[in-house]
Amino acid sequence: MVAFVVAAVVIGAVGFHFFGPDGTPEPTAAWAVDSCAGPDPTSGDDDAYRPLACDDSQATVTILDIQDAVSTAQAHCPGGTDVVFQKDGQAGGETQSVCARNLSDDHPGDTGRGGGQLVVGDCVDGDGAEVPCGDGGRKVTGLLMGGAECPDGTTDELALGFDPYRSYETICLAA
Question: Which superkingdom (predicted)?
Fold first, then answer.
């Protein structure tokens, strides 16, 4: 009889955990394109995110792409990416980079706004660091790897050299 009561309590607790107090399944959030995420206050890392339902008040970004990458600088994110962060791979696999866009109207990853990943049309300072185009930077006309040539309209090149954590070696610049 005691075993029966213990088993009933365990089954009830498991059911409550998975289905909630009203008997309906609780919504779950997962790492997937077109899903959402927000800051993870339990991680102790200010740059950590956790998957959240898009209607959750703590969701801050929508996921545009998830890529296998050693670092966020190696990711080739789609246009409009505002934030790039890392998460552990599925089932404890390799680290993955997540390309995300803010749910708010603040989009520093839009071309020329000075944030996100460096793309053609953005602006950089003399050291190759991205800056908002309104702040006097020079417009990027190309991002090259190897011996490729800059496109027409280029007046200068900023050779950065090889870096395994960056997807380009040379920044082509307009006047």
Answer: Bacteria
Contact by Cβ (8 Å): 80, 107: yes
**Does some domain include residue 45?**
yes
Do 131 and 93 share a structural domain?
no
pLDDT of residue 90: 58
Q: In angstroms, rounded to a whole number, what is the distance separating the alpha carbons of residues 143 and 130?
A: 13
* Integer Cα distance of 175 and 151 in angstroms: 13
Strands 170-173 and 138-144: antiparallel
Tell me which residue range forms the domain holding 59.
27-102
d(C-alpha 118, C-alpha 138), whole Å = 12
| Structure tokens that stand for 139 in this block | 């417009």
| Regions of the chain where pLDDT drops below 50 | 5-6, 9, 14, 17-26
Residue pair 144/162 in contact (Cβ under 8 Å)? The answer is no
In whole angstroms, give the CA distance from residue 27 to residue 159. 49
If asked whether residues 79 and 32 sit together in one domain, one would say yes
Question: Which residues are 157's β-sheet partners?
Answer: 172
Which alpha helices (DSSP H) does the chain contain, by range? 2-19
What are the two backbone dihedrals, phi and then psi, of residue 90, each rounded to the nearest 5 degrees? -60, 140
Residue at which a domain ends, from 55, 70, 102: 102
CA-closest candidate to residue 34, choices 54, 7, 18 = 54
